[in-house]
Amino acid sequence: MVKSVSCGKCGSGEVLQGVRPIGGAHEEQLKVQVFEKPNATLFKGAVSVPLLAHVCGACGFTELYAQEPERLLEARRRAKHE
Ligand SMILES: [Zn+2]
Asked: What is the value of pTM for the model shown?
């Protein structure tokens, strides 16, 4: 997580942190996903973590952050050793 609370675009200090991005018909929280075994037909070892957004209250600039990104990194490393 970025510690700074000032906007990367306009420099405003009014940045909302930890905003849940939602999508789809059921307004599900957005996630990112990595497969540990992308070439498997079943049981690909999906690792997914939710995204949280930082939204600038002045200009609307939005950044997305994966929660627990180290879990994705570990899955990707395991995939490369397949
Ligand atoms: Zn801004």
From this structure: 0.80
